[in-house]
Amino acid sequence: MDKSHNKGVLYLIPTLLGDAPIEDSLPTGNLKTINSLQVFIVENLRSARRFLKQAGYQHPFEEVVFHILNKHTEKEDLMSFLNSAQSGSSIGLLSEAGCPCIADPGQLIVNQAHQLGIRVKPLVGPSSIILALMASGMNGQAFQFHGYLPIQKQQRVLQIKELEKHAHHTSTTQIFMETPFRNMQLLEDILRSCRQDTQLCIAANLTTADEYIHTKTIKAWSRKKPPNLHKQPAIFLLFR
After folding, report:
1. CB–CB of 106/116 below 8 Å?
2. DSSP codes, 194-219
3. DSSP code at position 49
4. Which CATH number fits domain 4-122: 3.90.226.10, 3.40.1010.10, 3.20.20.140, 3.90.1150.10?
């Protein structure tokens, strides 16, 4: 017998990618679900509260339970985050930006929920990775997301060359990202390391008024001054 009907639901709630009208990124159904919850698992309390205000959240924050899930969270604390769902109350898992569990630590709590028989319900919302792939003109049938590349320059260059090699040999789009304040260093390494005929897509500030999406060969990118991506959230894609 399925006992999950006596438990709450873990809702995976996408958040905005940048400064954009909330109605342009999230369906009204999400906003109704958000307002039905009083327990949230978040990466950063301040930004979570700001997003909830944008979503028209009605409950006073002093009556809301926030569990912090980030790189400092102890693994043994994860189980307690789901106590409310075990008792029948639903919980919202918020990403810092975009979809939960994609390039953020949310998968840890989702895995725990599955083990406990708690229903996991992903909600519709923006994913910078998918939006960038959609707009890149690159292969959307076969692609790989690698998250963040190494910080150390030599290791980063080696991985860029490996990703480019894989893109050329397998026709698979290679997708990766960088901490925004290191975007320009990454872009410089890409332009210096890759073949002239390799295609590079840069997708920055997705869904915002400053959205920037361009795909060109490395040769074409190198002919002009590169865009200023410093402190701008961006996704990079390589293809043959």
Report:
1. no
2. S-TT-EEEEEESTTSTT-EEEEEEHH
3. H
4. 3.40.1010.10
Q: What is the pTM of this model?
A: 0.89
Instruction: Give residue for tokens 């290191």.
Output: 182
Asked if 237 contacts 138 with a C-beta cutoff of 8 angstroms, the reply is: yes
Would you say how long the chain is, in residues?
A: 240
CATH 3.30.950.10 fits 128-239, yes or no: yes
Cβ atoms 84, 92 nearer than 8 A: no
Q: What is the pLDDT of residues 28-66, one digit of tens each?
A: 999 999 999 999 999 999 999 999 999 999 999 999 999
Query: DSSP label at 76?
Result: G
Q: What is the identity of the amino acid at 209?
A: A
What are 20's two structure tokens?
């954009």
